[in-house]
Design goal:
Low-confidence stretches: 1-24, 26-33
Number of helices: 3
Distance between the termini: 28 Å
Order of helices and strands: EHEEEEEEEEEEEEEEEHHE
Mean pLDDT: 78
Structural class: alpha+beta
Shape: globular
Largest sheet: 5 strands, antiparallel
């Protein structure tokens, strides 16, 4: 995470920007190669699949947000929607709520309010978790001090179906456990609690995760 610094000049520029209508997402990423973009705003400095990229399936551990035709899959700061039998990377609409922030993000204070930024999207804390927010005018001129790089993410677990469950059943159980994990105390504020809840749920359904 990184801490936001505002200069007097930046504040003056932000005041002028306040008269312009804010956009829903920040288009500050640089296309690095086919299918990938490099997000260097606020020294976030992370690669992400580009919007429009089509994946055969969502990554293990993706959290389902919403229901019915309005469902999204969220994983590692990337948003997915069904696209035929595959999944396409998209930008989320303002107002969608997620239970957990992505593993890597930038912490900002804009207009006296806390924001979190990753992959062109701004988030605000709400009782249910974190809501996708319209970036405030101050976002255009904010400056940050780079922090130490985050630790490498935890390796994806290997899931063994102890009772011979089919791949389809495994996927259904994984999704159910993701939903259940979000209801556990502190799971929305602490990723380690969320992950432990998923592991416990999967173990209870007959899976070994290593």
């Amino acid at each position: 995470m990184k801490t936001l610094l505002h200069s007097t000049a930046a504040a003056a520029l932000a005041l002028g920007a306040a008269f312009c209508a804010p956009v829903a997402h920040a288009d500050v990423r640089v296309r690095a190669n086919v299918g990938m973009v490099f997000d260097n705003r606020y020294h976030h400095d992370h690669y992400y699949p580009a919007p429009g990229y089509v994946a055969p399936h969502v990554p293990h551990g993706a959290v389902i947000v919403g229901a019915g035709p309005g469902r999204y899959w969220f994983h590692g700061g990337v948003w997915y929607r069904p696209y035929g039998s595959s999944y396409r990377v998209v930008l989320p609409p303002v107002g969608v709520v997620i239970p957990l922030l992505p593993p890597s993000y930038v912490t900002l204070t804009l207009g006296g309010l806390p924001y979190y930024y990753a992959n062109g999207v701004y988030y605000r804390p709400v009782p249910e978790g974190y809501v996708v927010a319209t970036p405030p005018p101050e976002a255009a001129t904010a400056q940050v001090v780079p922090a130490a790089p985050p630790p490498p993410p935890k390796a994806e677990p290997i899931i063994y179906p102890r009772n011979g469950q089919s791949p389809e059943q495994l996927e259904n159980d994984r999704r159910d456990c993701n939903r259940w994990a979000t209801t556990q105390p502190n799971a929305q504020a602490d990723a380690s609690v969320f992950n432990r809840a998923v592991d416990a749920c999967m173990d209870g359904r007959g899976y070994t995760m290593k």
